[in-house]
Specification:
The complex is a heterodimer of chains A (400) and B (84).
Chain A (H helix, E strand, L loop, with lengths): L1 E4 L9 E7 L6 E2 L4 E7 L2 E6 L4 E6 L5 E4 L3 E7 L53 H10 L17 H16 L8 H18 L2 E9 L1 H12 L9 H15 L5 E4 L2 E4 L5 E3 L1 E3 L3 E3 L2 E2 L7 H17 L2 E2 H5 L3 E5 L18 E5 L3 E7 L2 E15 L5 H14 L6
Parallel strand pairs in A: 5-16, 12-17, 17-18
Antiparallel strand pairs in A: 1-8, 2-4, 2-7, 3-6, 4-5, 6-8, 9-20, 10-11, 12-15, 13-14, 18-20, 19-20
Helix pairs in contact in A: 1-2, 5-6, 5-8
Chain B lengths: L2 H15 L14 H5 L3 H15 L14 H13 L3
Helix pairs in contact in B: 1-3, 1-4
Classes of the chains: A alpha+beta (400), B mainly alpha (84).
């Protein structure tokens, strides 16, 4: 029997409130499934299970605040024998070799564990919709008949269903303050930033990068793309940072217990402003491994879910380095504050036309100032400069 | 689709991005990015939504034509008129 415990969702977290169970006893779960929603100072976080198996028992009730580490539920893992009517054997520990599967059904578990029943009415008039739209609608219990189709001849498209799903979620969450308590979030940010400045000796570097090539390349790419798949400079910034971090491991990892633990994976935290004054920096996992299109798609998804208060526990806990950008209406340079226990934060300023020397002559180029704030216990200016320059160099070749 | 309907679509989509803003009070000539404090991802989502709802193509070079309510209405009306 495996225990599903209250996770630590931030370095300062001591307790959390369970606000919603998304599974019940008897449900099958697999690694990565979201099983509960926990309220913390950072907002409502969707918690994933890393155990696969069947939910045996929910130990903690909804709206209970418990310390980190408390057992929330018990999950019978797949290796254990299922006690049947004729079976007397107690559940087998996962380490022991499993007895031959008695009544164990083949692992044909439903792909999702959904909270809402999937009641799609089978009406007389069949709504015109794409197959992908139908699937998504059935997964989320959306009635196609109530949607206004944006596709040809009013057919319901995948995007129409997606929008309806996104719209209906905040309504469910208003029962618990939309999952984002801005005041509590501000307190959490204050604690993290104060701690950062108290404990981390920051040093700062800035570097001007000619991004005219990026802009030209993006424009060329986007001409042929529908807005659903268009690319933004922000995606290039994230990817370049992740790829550069591969070559400069002193900027990717955690400083804990008096020493630096470099991370073998690169999860870029994206600083996302939340309307009303909130800020979160959830992780985009393995950003160095993903093709640019995927980075862009995940960024959009992360931004949307962050603003709806639907971040996952792995996204809160995992960033190994953070990227912050104030966008085209921001300022030229942004010096970030490192989110402990990370050791670096890269800032991207707004793109401005500047006079630039190319081949001995002055021309106008699009220039962006990038900055690095890094932990001086782990790296020095020399390494920082090389890291920052590397990002600049990578941005000269957006097509890679 | 007439002007009132276009305006309704615009207000609805902007409302999804900036739900706390009183859109009825926005000046028709005001820069929407400033008035609503929206970033490039928001704007891209806005363009994506308009593309799907109205069934028209909006290339990147046309983005400046969507920055104010009055310009956006004129642009979308022309696009719909031209039959995509």
């Amino acid at each position: 029997m495996a225990d599903f415990r209250m996770p630590s969702l931030g370095s300062d977290m001591e307790a959390g409130t369970l606000v919603e169970w998304l599974v019940k006893p008897g449900d099958r779960v697999k690694h990565g499934d979201i099983v509960a929603v926990v309220e913390t100072q950072k907002g409502a976080i969707e918690v994933e299970t890393f155990q696969a198996g069947e939910v045996e028992q929910l130990v903690v009730d909804v709206n209970t605040k418990v310390p980190v580490g408390t057992v929330l539920a018990r999950i019978r893992t797949l290796e254990e024998a299922r006690p049947g009517a004729a079976e007397q054997a107690p559940p087998v520990a996962p380490a022991a070799p499993p007895p031959e599967p008695v009544s164990a059904p083949a692992p044909v578990a439903p792909p999702f564990v959904v909270a809402r029943p999937q009641a799609v009415p089978v009406g007389a008039a069949r709504v015109r919709a794409s197959p992908a739209a139908r699937r998504l609608a059935s997964q989320h219990g959306v009635d196609l008949a109530v949607l206004t189709g944006g596709g040809p001849e009013g057919a319901v498209t995948y995007a129409d269903v997606e929008r309806r799903v996104a719209e209906s979620r905040p309504a469910a969450e208003t029962r618990r303050a939309v999952g984002i308590d801005l005041d509590a979030m501000r307190i959490a940010i204050a604690a993290a930033m104060a701690r950062s400045k108290r404990e981390i000796p920051h040093y700062y570097l800035a570097h001007d990068v000619d991004v005219t090539g990026c802009e030209t390349w993006l424009a060329e790419q986007n001409v042929a793309r529908p807005p659903d798949s268009r690319l933004l400079l922000g995606a290039l910034a994230v990817k370049a940072t992740a790829v550069a971090a591969r070559r400069f491991p002193a900027f990717n990892g955690f400083y804990r217990d008096g020493r630096f633990e470099p991370s073998s994976r690169i999860h870029v935290g994206l600083a996302i402003a939340i309307r009303g004054g909130g800020l979160a920096a959830p992780a985009l996992h393995d950003a160095d491994q993903l093709p640019l299109d995927e980075v862009m798609g995940r960024m959009r998804d992360l931004v949307q879910r962050t603003r709806l208060g639907r971040i996952r526990s792995s996204e809160i806990a995992d960033p190994t380095i953070t990227v912050s950008s104030l966008g085209e209406r921001g300022v030229e340079a942004l010096y970030g504050v490192i989110y402990p226990p990370q050791v670096a934060i890269v800032g991207f300023g707004k793109v401005v036309p500047r006079p630039w020397v190319i081949d001995g002559a002055i021309g106008a180029r699009s220039v962006m100032t990038i900055t690095l704030a890094a932990d001086h216990r782990v790296s020095d200016g020399h390494g920082g400069a090389l890291f920052l320059s590397e990002i600049g160099k990578l941005l000269q070749q957006p097509e890679r | 689709m007439n002007d009132a309907e276009i305006r309704k679509v615009l207000i609805e989509e902007l409302g999804k991005i900036a739900p706390e803003v009183d859109l009825a009070s926005i000046d028709a000539g005001a820069d929407l990015r400033e008035a609503l404090d929206i970033d490039s991802i928001d704007f891209l989502n806005f363009v994506t939504a308009l593309t799907h709802r109205l069934g028209i193509a909006i290339p990147e070079i046309d983005y400046p034509k969507l920055v104010t309510l009055s310009r956006a209405r004129a642009y979308l009306a022309a696009k719909l008129e031209a039959g995509r």
